[in-house]
Design goal:
about 230 residues, Immunoglobulin-like, 13 strands, 13-stranded mixed sheet
């Protein structure tokens, strides 16, 4: 089993997916409005499991203060129940996740620098950081800012919904790094879909379990002077 894990870690490190996050001059307003995101490239993911049919677009931008993320999810039946911080079943709602390994260690340990957020459609979160023994520290609570916009009705299966948008800013102070061009963060992005008694989950890199830093892709910071010049005009 150890050899299998070692081979998987080596393969993942060589074949890591990449996403380029561009620098912006003006901070993103966290209001679940994507009008400020036209300069960001897009990751398009589709739920190919037999349980769900969601689609998700992920975008990222950055400045000196924050890393910004935007999730645009196509979902025809919006469902969420949990309103309590860190509720153990929040991950069973319609929700998104992001996972970051700031040091991009590509190992199997969920350690103290790693972090995860789950955010559901009611605007509640469940988050944790890793621990020295490669477990989780659920007592940790992050301070990322986020906003949720529903494109439909919540908990009403009699109609057809369009989906939702979740916009996020997480400070570099919380991540624990100073942003510079070329910085590579280990990252994964995931979506959970609650349809009746079924739940489906899908993510960018196919990590199982999701807290598997060795499988994470590379989120790479870039300063494109053409983008910066256009934004200043």
């Amino acid at each position: 089993m150890t050899w299998i894990l070692l081979i998987m870690m080596i393969w993942a490190g060589v074949h890591a997916k990449e996403y380029i996050s561009d620098y912006i001059v003006n901070p993103i307003v966290i209001d679940a409005d994507l009008s400020e995101w036209n300069r960001a490239s897009v990751i398009l993911l589709k739920d190919t499991t037999a349980k769900g049919d969601n689609q998700m677009k992920i975008r990222s931008l950055w400045d000196e203060q924050n890393l910004y993320l935007a999730y645009e999810v196509k979902n025809d039946d919006l469902q969420a129940n949990q309103t309590v911080l860190d509720h153990r079943e929040l991950w069973l709602d319609d929700m998104i996740e992001f996972l970051i390994d700031p040091l991009n260690e590509k190992d199997s340990c969920w350690d103290e620098n790693d972090l995860i957020y789950h955010i559901n459609l009611l605007g509640q979160k469940k988050d944790d950081r890793g621990s020295a023994d490669c477990g989780t520290n659920p007592e940790w609570n992050g301070e990322a800012k986020y906003a949720v916009s529903l494109l439909g009705t919540l908990n009403d299966s009699t109609d057809t919904d369009n989906g939702y948008i979740i916009e996020i800013s997480i400070s570099w102070a919380e991540i624990g790094l100073k942003p510079v061009e070329g910085l590579k963060l280990g990252a994964d992005f995931a979506c959970g879909d609650k349809d009746g008694i079924r739940n489906s989950f899908f993510d960018w890199v196919g990590a199982r379990p999701f807290r598997s830093p060795y499988a994470f892709g590379d989120l790479i910071l870039r300063r494109d002077e053409n983008i910066i010049r256009d934004e200043k005009q």
